[in-house]
Amino acid sequence: MTAFGTAVADGLTITRRNLIKIKRVPDLIVFATLSPIMFVLLFRYVFGGAIGGLPPGISYAEFLLPGIFAQTVVFGSTTTGASIAEDLQKGLIDRFRSLPMARSAVLVGRTIADLGLNAISIAVMALTGLVVGWRINSSLGEAVGGFLVLLLFAYAISWLMAVVGLLVRTPEVVNNASFIVIFPLTFVASTFVPLETFPSVLRTFAEWNPMSAVTQAARELFGNIPAGAPVPDAWSLQNPVLYTVIWTALILAVFVPLSVRLYQRTSTR
Cβ-count burial of 173 within 10 angstroms (0-12 exposed, 13-18 middle, 19+ buried)? Predict the structure, then answer.
């Protein structure tokens, strides 16, 4: 078997181990599904009536759900960093390192397993969204593309969080640090309210915030932007799918090799 084939096989083995762990720790699935449902219901029914400035012909449910999707998968990706920090703390990664496996296998297995958990969260949110009034107004292919864009971006964030987990090495600190950074990024964006309601400085930041692009891409692919809606001024929101792919490629190009190097150094301490 080639080196690449060995790396793939080892990564899939670790993925299977992590998925079995999720199955045996039902709390992970419970919180991964309950939190999205809670956010959908809270924003739809508590804040929905107070949100104005939406384009004519769109309900807040259709405006909201793509933003909730984007927020949830990004927050879900923080599981990668916390899980790696936990494995380091328990010495499990040192045991993995003693086995004849590819250097990237542990990280690949962790990120793919967390991608699966994010897929479950999206499925639950989509079903909840249909109940509260969200609809997909595009073709099947475009809808699938919308979900793939969300998961692709989430996968890239998982590799960023893997670096955080390897550097911090304490699950609680990883969660707190992630919250401090990701929470403002998801709210200073077009996730929950139109950008027209933002002050000028924040609006400029939000227009180029990748979270706004991911959300806008999902809205376009799900058909949640009505015909005749104003065209955004920023290039990033005029081409949200391309801008999201660029960000995803940059994050993966930087953090995949960096996390593998850190894994080698950190686990030998």
Answer: middle
Distance of CA 266 to the CA centre of its chain: 25
Are the C-beta atoms of 224 and 216 separated by less than 8 Å?
A: no
- Residues in CB range of 137: below 8 A, 6 or more apart: 62, 222, 223, 224
Q: Which contiguous run of DSSP H or E holds residue 22?
A: helix 3-24
- The CA radius of gyration of the chain, in Å to the nearest whole number, is 19
Alpha helices in 133-209 (DSSP H): 140-168, 171-187, 200-208
Taken in order 121, 221, 244, 9, the sign of the CA dihedral is positive
Tell me the Ramachandran region of residue 99: left when phi exceeds 0, alpha when psi lies from -120 to 50, beta otherwise: beta
Task: Give 187-197 pLDDT, tens digit per residue.
Answer: 899 888 888 88
Closest CA to 251 of 183, 163, 146, 119: 163
Distance CA 259, CA 243 (A): 24
Q: Which residues of 194-204 are buried (b: 16+ CB within 10 A; e: fewer)?
A: ebeebeeeebe
- How much is the pTM? 0.89
122 and 150 in contact (C-beta within 8 Å)?
yes
**pLDDT tens for residues 234-243?**
999 999 999 9
Residues contacting 182, CB < 8 A, separation 6+:
74, 75, 78
